[in-house]
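quick one
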Amino acid sequence: MCRLCGVWPSTEVDHVIAGDDHALSNLQGVCGPCHRAKSSSEGGRAAAAARHPARVRPREPHPGELPRPTDRPDRQP
Ligand SMILES: [Zn+2]
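structure w/ zinc ion:
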């Protein structure tokens, strides 16, 4: 039975106190939706994403790459 909402059966194991304590006293059975809600509220991934936002850098042309004729304003294709 989910220890958070009472639905049966519990399908996942949740850490009562988030972290690396895997002692049985720190584990509880929960259902998937409750586990996802609790984990997201704990914000591990969200906080990590906020600390390390995706950095997308525009592609740099290879030094040996010649500009295409359409990229050069002095030439008409
Ligand atoms: Zn639940």
